[in-house]
Structure formats: structure tokens, C-alpha cells
Amino acid sequence: MHAEAGHEVAIAFLTSGEHGGSAEADDLGTRREREAVDAAAALGVRSDRLRFLRFPDGGIDPYDCDQFGVVLEVLRESRPDLLYLPHPKDGSFDHEAAFALCWRAAQMAGSSNYPQCGSPHWVSTILGYEVWTPITQPALLRDIAPVVERKLAALGRYRTQTVGAKGAGQSTLVGPACMHLTGFRGASTTGGHREAFTVLRLREVIV
Predict the structure, then answer these.
(1) DSSP state letter for 3
(2) CA angle 192, 86, 9 (to 5 degrees)
(3) In whole angstroms, how far apart are CA 70 and each of 35, 55, 126?
(4) What pLDDT is attached to residue 205?
(5) Distance between CA 28 and CA 26 in Å, rounded?
(6) Strand 125-129's sheet: what is its strand order?
(7) In terms of Cα–Cα distance, which of 161, 133, 118, 120 is closest to 20?
(8) What are 167-174's contacts with CB under 8 Å, separation 24+?
(9) Average pLDDT of the segment spanning 108-124
(10) How far apart are CA 84 and CA 9, in angstroms?
(11) pLDDT, average across residues 144-159
């Protein structure tokens, strides 16, 4: 929706998901990066706006100074007004670690500390999204009806993540399964499909 509205969108991938499937790690990481490029294109995001940081899959560490420095540099270089992160309690070890690492970097980004990572930039709005674990009390719900088909098309680019590729009994959010949570959000509000967020930082409140 942001790209359709004419906003500049950038995406940073902390890992390449090299252990998230049945293929060998080196090959799978490369394939998943190609899938990410295709998925981003389906959402209207150019490939030159993607950053693959290649932290180890399963090894995101918010206390790792090198990882922290890389994320801090990305934030100060891209200088976003709005940042999306996994919400703090999303039920994936990597997602929880990703939140902690990126939140630490976002907290520091506006400071003059770590000048080697770029000039300070205050990220004015930060939202947490849900993937594996629903947010208990969402602070924001967005109607995604206009882009449901585009979302399905984008997720469909991740061919290595389908049940057919991963094998029976494995989790997947590719295909209709990806719409169950947004459908529930719509059913419990005004219908259709909605995405839920927790508000971690907000630029302003209209009163």
C-alpha cells in the first residue's frame, strides 16, 4: 500500500533463511534471496531498495555488537519515517531476537553515539506486525482489501516455503493460509481483511 501511494519503501532482510527448508543451506539462502526480490517486485518495491544483511539464520543476537552496528548503519543510511518490526512477542525465536536487535538500534539511531555508523536519525513511528503469534490487543488495524491479491501474489513467490517444497507436516504461510489471520481480524471488526499492529512509537496524536 505504501508503494502504491508513491512512498519510497526499503526492506532489510536480517537473514536469508538458509535453514528454513529442505535444501542445503548455501543453495537455499541464495534461492530465498531471489524469491525475496521477486516478492518485493510484486509489491512494487525495486530491487535496489532491498538489503540482505546475511546474519546467520537462527543466530540473530541483539547483544552482538557487529549485528547491532550493521542495523544501526542501515537505519541511519535509509533514514525511515516509518519502521515495521515483528511485534515483541511474535512466536518465533528469530522474530523475537529480530525485534530486540532492531529496537535496540532504533533506540540508538537518534543519538550522536556510534558516529562510525552514520549521522543521527530519529525514527518517528515504529509499528510491530504479527506473523506467528497474534497481538493480544492491537493498537492499530489497517484494511488491506485493496491489496489482498497482491499480497497473495507476493507470498506465492516464495516457492521454497510451500508445503510441496518443505514436505508434509511443515508450517507455511504461502497460499490461502497467509490470509487466515487477516481474515480473523476482519471478521472481528468490520469484515474483509485487516492487518493488526502494536504501536511502539508514534510521531503525533491528533486531539
Answers:
(1) T
(2) 75
(3) 23, 10, 19
(4) 66
(5) 6
(6) 82-86, 125-129, 194-201, 140-143
(7) 161
(8) 167/22, 173/131
(9) 98
(10) 11
(11) 92
The model's pTM: 0.91
Give the separation between CA 156 and CA 174, rounded to whole angstroms: 6
Q: Which of 176, 207, 181 is nearest to 195 (CA)?
A: 181
SS (H, E, C) 139-170: CEEEECHHHHHHHHHHHHCCHHHCHHHHCCCC
Report which secondary-structure segment, H or E, holds 67: helix 65-78
Q: What is the mean pLDDT of residues 64-86?
A: 98
Cα–Cα dist 196/144, whole Å: 10
d(CA 131, CA 116): 34
